[in-house]
């Protein structure tokens, strides 16, 4: 299946932008956790370290996926799909906790990114 190169480039740019937004959100959450750590009376170091490492690795991974898409490569496709499927799973927990203000935007961003990633078809080269 061949695709118009200009259309493929626009699709890759959209996916890269969405992945950069997701990476920014994840890294902002990591920064918020660091600030929260310094403003609390007590905290557990190892759970915090685990969450921070996961957030930094996840944000960095999403940034790499976005950079790959931006450069015209599709190496980041599988990790981007996996990350967004995980985010949709997180949405179900947010809904159960009645945190609609978190669940709705997260579902919209993850769903849009997932559909965009799956629709961006590599060009024949």
What does this structure look like?
- 81% of the residues lie in helices and 0% in strands.
- The chain has four helices and no strands.
- The relative contact order is 0.17.
- It has one domain.
- By secondary structure, it is an all-alpha fold.
TL;DR of this structure?
The chain has helices spanning 5-39, 45-70, 77-96, 100-119. The chain has 125 residues and is mainly α. It has one domain.
> What is the percent of helical residues?
over 70%
How many domains comprise the coordinates? 1
Largest sheet: none
Output the helix-strand order. Answer: HHHH
Uncertain runs are: none
Termini separation (Å)? 11 Å
- Number-wise, the strands total 0
Structural class: mainly alpha
* Average pLDDT metric: 88
Radius of gyration: 17 Å
How many helical stretches? 4
Q: Give the overall shape.
A: elongated
Fraction in beta strands = under 5%
List keywords for this structure.
125 residues; mainly alpha
Task: Set out the fold topology.
Layout: H1 5-39, H2 45-70, H3 77-96, H4 100-119
């Amino acid at each position: 299946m061949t695709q118009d190169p200009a259309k493929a480039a626009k699709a890759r740019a959209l996916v890269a932008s969405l992945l950069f937004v997701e990476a920014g959100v994840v890294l902002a959450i990591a920064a918020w956790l660091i600030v929260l750590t310094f403003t609390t009376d007590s905290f557990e170091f190892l759970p915090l370290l685990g969450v921070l490492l996961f957030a930094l690795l996840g944000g960095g991974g999403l940034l790499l996926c976005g950079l790959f898409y931006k450069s015209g490569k599709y190496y980041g496709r599988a990790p981007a799909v996996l990350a967004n499927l995980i985010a949709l799973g997180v949405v179900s927990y947010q809904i159960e906790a009645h945190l609609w203000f978190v669940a709705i935007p997260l579902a919209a961003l993850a769903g849009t990114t997932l559909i965009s990633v799956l629709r961006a078809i590599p060009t024949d080269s």
